[in-house]
Write a structure and sequence with these properties.
With 90 residues, this protein is mainly alpha-helical. It has a domain of 48 residues. It is 59% helix and 7% strand. It is built from five helices and two strands. Strands 1-2 form a two-stranded parallel sheet. Helix 3 crosses helix 4 and helix 3 crosses helix 5. The longest helix is centred in the N-terminal third of the chain and has 22 residues. The protein starts with 5 loop residues before the first strand and ends with a strand. Keywords: DNA-binding. It comes from Listeria newyorkensis.
């Protein structure tokens, strides 16, 4: 089974209403995708934290939708998992 390793922000924002709804939905989808790819790579949160130079607590908060990463942090995390990040602004 192949899991998509691309974060497509346009798809994540599809079919969402107001700006707050978009933010919440994006957090939830992003956190689920990070967790999915990490687990598919058989990585622990600790290992991902070490590889991406991001605190383990931050990884946990991201995966639970409690925090939203900065772009540089998100890039370090995705690159550490062998994933890519696509951002499209319309």
């Amino acid at each position: 089974m192949s899991i998509e390793k691309t974060f497509n922000m346009d798809e994540m924002l599809n079919d969402i209403g107001d700006i707050h709804g978009k933010e919440l939905q994006l957090k939830l989808q992003l956190s689920a995708k990070i967790k999915e790819i990490r687990k598919n790579n058989k990585m622990t949160q600790v290992k991902l934290a070490e590889l991406s130079n991001v605190p383990t607590k931050t990884i946990s908060y991201l995966e639970n939708g409690k925090n939203f990463p900065s772009i540089p942090t998100l890039l370090r995390i995705t690159e550490s998992m062998g994933a890519t990040l696509k951002i499209s602004i319309r």
